[in-house]
Amino acid sequence: MIDIYETEFRKADLNLLVVFAALMRERSVTRAAAALHLSQGATSAALGRLRGLFGDELFTRTRTGVEPTPRAVALARRIEPALGLIHGAMTDRDRFDPATARRTFTLGMSDDLEAVLLPRLLNATAGLPGIRLAVRQASRNTVADMLDRGEIDLGVAAAPAHGPDHRSQDLFPSGYTCLFNPRLLPLRTPLTLDDYLAHPHLLISYDGRRGIVDDILEARGLTRRVVASTTHFAGAALQLATLPALATVPAHAATVYADLLDLTETPPPIPMPAYTVSATWHGSAGDDPAHAWLRGLVGALARGETPDDRSGPPS
Predict the structure, then answer these.
(1) SS3 105
(2) Element (H or E) spanning 82, and its range?
(3) Which end of the chain has the least Cβ crowding within 10 Å, N or C?
(4) Count of alpha carbons within 13 Å of 36, Cβ hemisphere only?
(5) How far apart are CA 104 and CA 153, in angstroms?
(6) pTM
């Protein structure tokens, strides 16, 4: 077996795989070069050698950098964990140490979940100078594809749709809450159905036409008056500062918005579904100690816990 390894490894400089990993992470030749302390020319040359080695374009140019091909995404699932194992063997460590590591973690989540989790994550990693967090907008319908394309390391969504190549972990239960500005709408709480239907609403919807509230009301032969719509929960909450209207938002985010904007939160006067927010990742990342640390950290913070040991993966 060693003879086979030697024959194959003679064909390639394994340092090229480090360049490959940086390109996958940074999505830019310029940023990858800076991260690796190489010139842009040397990084471009390494990319050319990688293309020859794997017989694929690997990365195509875009207006903002480079985008991995399907072949590159498939390779990344095998190369990045392997680099982690090699690093562990060279340093005699099989665990991830966030206190000394340099790593960017990309999470996919909607803005309501970002409002809850990102402040906690930033606080928990404030003393870890090499850890960088990036958040990309995602929904339960897009998380799986973003994981498959290597765009995110971890997706957080309400009951995300995923396939057999993905793994998931429940984080916390949630539901829906109504928000309004009590200085503009002096309503009594808990809110009555008559008040709910009598006052204007802000709709949060991807298509801007209807949401789950409209479906529930329609089933009861009722309607509400929607005066505006937005695709972001935070955008709706900000509008309530000057707009006498109601917004029905996820309960986990409602508390954050209410505290920050001095809004009133109250249960909706119609039966709304409960759901579970989950973390989802690609199965190929399961053995990566760094990814295990990230999953543990997100899980602990989602449960409202404060990880005590920042030098190792939370249990």
Answers:
(1) strand
(2) helix 70-91
(3) N
(4) 26
(5) 9
(6) 0.74
Q: Which of 65, 94, 123 is the last residue of a domain?
A: 94
Strand partners, 265: 179
Q: Which residues contact 53 (CB under 8 A, 6 or more apart)?
A: 11, 12, 16
Distance (Å, whole) CA 208 – CA 10: 57
DSSP notation for 248-290: EEEHHHHHHHHHHHT-EEE--SS----EEEEEEEEGGGTT-HH
Pairing relationship of beta strands 154-158 and 176-180 according to DSSP bridges: unpaired
Q: Are 105 and 131 in contact (CB under 8 A)?
A: yes
Q: Are residues 107 and 64 in the same domain?
A: no
Domain holding 261, by residue range, is 176-273
The yes-or-no verdict on residue 264 having pLDDT over 90 is: yes
Quick: pLDDT tens for 147-201: 888 889 999 999 887 778 899 999 999 999 999 999 999 999 999 999 999 999 9
Q: Are residues 87 and 102 in the same domain?
A: no
The verdict on whether omega for the bond into residue 273 sits within 30 degrees of 0, i.e. cis, is no
Q: DSSP character for 209?
A: S
The CA angle 128-309-295, to the nearest 5 degrees, is 75
27-31, 204-208, 278-282: which range is least confident on average?
204-208
pLDDT at 133 over 80: yes
Query: What distance in Å separates the CA atoms of residue 9 and residue 26, rounded to the nearest whole number?
Result: 26
Give 58's Cβ-side CA count (13 Å radius): 24
Return the half-sphere exposure (C-beta side, CA atoms, 13 A cut-off) of residue 23: 33
